[in-house]
Write a structure and sequence with these properties.
The structure holds two protein chains of two kinds. By secondary structure, chain A is an all-beta fold. By secondary structure, chain B is an all-beta fold. The chains are: A mainly beta, B mainly beta.
Chain lengths: ~110, ~110
């Protein structure tokens, strides 16, 4: 059972580079989310989607863009990476707002 | 953005002890309260989603209660085992919002 799969698992970028993180879920969930985890902080929501073709801003959206062209995929983009975006990124999905979220294994991103 | 607080930040208990910790959240406009277990090097795993005042949920030795009028939830672990060692996260959402706001977690260490 794959569940939620994130790629890549690790990445090191230089300041100013761009990259895309991919999240794929095989549970036919409507809702998908991108979070970041930083030391001493709770999981913070970056962007989320409530269905194919929809996206919305979360708590910390600046510097990130997202797309949900297919129901099973949710992409997180960094157009011009900054050291402040060094973090562990988690993707999650759920069937609804009152349903439990299923998390991927995370992507550790370092920006030098 | 909601203010979700968890206490204590960390605790150590002996194997066999029972323990509990607290999550507080805004009581106005409440929608749902989630509990997750997050083991080191893994991804958060859903324990409970609670929506009704007075709700009580149980999963093996772990149970949770919810008081939406005063804005708190307790998580109880009966007869702690070393495999219960993890960080326990709670998260709350408000009505009309698809966003979960996570607390910083309670890190539990069970000493054999």
């Amino acid at each position: 059972n794959a569940g939620v799969t994130q790629t890549p698992k690790f990445r090191v970028l230089k300041t100013g580079q761009s990259m895309t993180l991919l999240c794929a879920q095989d549970m036919n969930h409507e809702y998908m989310y991108w979070y970041r985890q930083d030391p001493g902080m709770g999981l913070r929501l970056i962007h989320y989607s409530v269905g194919e073709g929809t996206t919305a801003k979360g708590e910390v959206p600046d510097g990130y863009n997202v797309s949900r062209l297919k129901k099973q995929n949710f992409l997180l983009g960094l157009e011009s990476a900054a050291p402040s975006q060094t973090s562990v990124y988690f993707c999650a999905s759920s069937q609804g707002a009152r349903q439990p979220q299923h998390f991927g294994d995370g992507t550790r991103l370092s920006i030098l | 953005i909601l203010n979700v607080e968890q206490s204590p930040q960390s605790l150590h208990v002996q194997e066999g002890d029972s323990t509990n910790f607290t999550c507080s959240f805004p009581s106005s406009n409440f929608y749902a309260l989630h509990w997750y277990r997050w083991e080191t090097a893994k991804s958060p795993e859903a324990l409970f989603v609670m929506t009704l005042n007075g709700d009580e949920k149980k999963k093996g030795r772990i149970s949770a209660t919810l008081n939406t009028k005063e804005g708190y939830s307790y998580l109880y672990i009966k007869g702690s085992q070393p495999e219960d060692s993890a960080t326990y996260l709670c998260a709350s959402s408000g009505a009309g919002s698809y966003q979960l706001t996570f607390g910083k977690g309670t890190k539990l260490s069970v000493i054999p």
